Amino acid sequence: MDPCLNIVVVEDHEALRIITVEALQSRGHRVIGVESAECLQETLGNQPLDLVVVDVNLPGEDGVSLARRLKQSHPDLGVIVVSVRDRLDDKLGAYECGADLYLTKPVSVEELCAAAAALGKRLQRVSHPPRRGFSLDLQQMRLRGPAGETPLTAQEATVLAALVRAPGHRLETWQFLEQLGWVDTTGKMALEVPMSRLRRKFTLVGAAANPLIAIRKHGYQLGCDVVID
């Protein structure tokens, strides 16, 4: 089975970015799309990251420069560079800057997804020990992790189960409100209450990184591996 990866797609072409994100999400990965290196920098501190898919021609800092900087600061991070440039010296330059793979546009979504899965497997074998995940027991309403277990309220269990089952483990705010049976006038701020409680409980059972990532103007995404018992 292919590993579930935390991926960021850096692509300034909006339609192509959306297609790429949705294709990778359909393979079970947790994926966020951003339009520039600057936007990626804001994302790096908010979630664990396994792989970046980066276009060369970006506004501001270009993709090759970004690949070099990412590899210097995150040596275990996988980097796939995509570009319309197909000359050998362009490819060699990207590899010298730290790219793990260089794909020439147009890239089919099938090829990109296969490349991401293959690179993810290789990076996990070389760089990462097996992840110790979390489990949600819906019958006993408990969250279990490497450091133990803790009880959940019905509201917390509903929110977490919805995220685990969602494509790409990501939901918009209105979808959460619908799951909880709240009317829209309840407001987004009220949703942060169960999310904050869930974050604390994840910490109690061993979460190191942010397990529930707030996505501005969108909703939330699961930032760790959770299975439903």
UniProtKB/TrEMBL annotation:
Signal peptide: none
PROSITE patterns xref list: OMPR_PHOB (PS51755), RESPONSE_REGULATORY (PS50110)
DNA-binding region: 123-224
Entry-linked Gene3D superfamilies: 3.40.50.2300, Winged helix-like DNA-binding domain superfamily/Winged helix DNA-binding domain (1.10.10.10)
Keywords (A to Z) from UniProt: DNA-binding, Phosphoprotein, Transcription, Transcription regulation, Two-component regulatory system
GO BP: regulation of DNA-templated transcription
Domain of life: Bacteria
Pfam families named in the record: Response_reg, Trans_reg_C
Cross-referenced InterPro entries: CheY-like_superfamily (IPR011006), OmpR/PhoB-type_DNA-bd (IPR001867), Sig_transdc_resp-reg_C-effctor (IPR016032), Sig_transdc_resp-reg_receiver (IPR001789), WalR-like (IPR039420), WH-like_DNA-bd_sf (IPR036388)
Domain Response regulatory: residue ranges: 6-120
Molecular-function annotations in GO: phosphorelay response regulator activity; transcription cis-regulatory region binding
Domain OmpR/PhoB-type, chain residue ranges per copy: 123-224
Residue numbers carrying 4-aspartylphosphate: 55
GO cellular component: cytosol; protein-DNA complex
Record-given protein name: Two-component system response regulator PhoP
